[in-house]
Amino acid sequence: MSDLVFYYHSKLPCAAFRILETRIKEHGEHEITSTFDEFRVDQYALADSTTSRIVAIDFDNTITADPEFYMSLIDAYREGDWEPVICTLRGDMDDNLQEIRGKLHDEGIRIYTTDGRKKRAFMLHQGISVGLWIDDYFPGIIQLGSPLLLRNGIEY
Ligand SMILES: [Mg+2]
Predict the structure, then answer these.
(1) Contact 6, 132 (CB under 8 A)
(2) Which tens digit of pLDDT belongs to each residue from 7-45?
(3) Phi, psi of 62 (to 5 degrees)
């Protein structure tokens, strides 16, 4: 699997994005655009907290779009002292958790299941700020029109 188009357009610097950018360049088949085009973009990298070391990665149509790439990205984040976690709109049924861990070959990664709730509010409610979101579906993170989307170049 290959040829994913990643969107990134943050008005503030985001150190976590540099790791993703490096991994995309090393990988060689995916690309990055700063142009918001829902018909072209496959995955959105949205900068959020400037101090958090957490990178929240979606599962369906994000990790599953190229599991090998994401496994290597997760390793790269850990090597750089970031904590990659999974944040999915799925519910917390054991089957879901096992499927995610199995796909990643990773028993240790933290998995947050929001059961359909907006991810950013869900994580903040757990006391967790996220430095970078990687997701194919940005409306799952936060409601349309929010300052976070504007700050990432998404005007809705
Ligand atoms: Mg998804």
Answers:
(1) no
(2) 999 988 899 999 999 999 999 999 999 999 999 999 999
(3) -115, -80
- 155 Cβ partners below 8 Å, 6+ apart? 36, 149
Integer CA distances (angstroms), 101 to 15, 47, 96, 107, in order: 26, 25, 9, 6
State the distance from the centre of ligand 1 to the C-alpha of 114, rounded, in angstroms: 12
Query: In the predicted model, is pLDDT for residue 56 greater than 90?
Result: yes
Query: Under a CB-based contact definition with an 8 Å cutoff, are residues 74 and 109 in contact?
Result: yes
Distance in angstroms (rounded) separating the CA atoms of residues 101 and 111: 9
- 32 CA from centroid of ligand 1 (Å): 18
- Positive or negative, the CA dihedral 89, 95, 98, 104 is negative
74 CA distance to ligand 1 centroid (A)? Answer: 17
| Nearest Cα to Cα of residue 131 among 85, 98, 93, 95 | 85
CA-to-CA dists, residue 96 to 19, 90, 109, angstroms: 27, 7, 14
Tell me the domain boundaries of the chain: 5-151
Task: List the strands of the sheet with 5-7, edge to edge.
Answer: 31-33, 5-7, 43-47, 132-135, 54-57, 83-88, 111-113
Distance CA 133, CA 137 (A): 10
Complete DSSP assignment for 50-64: SS--EEEE-TTTTGG
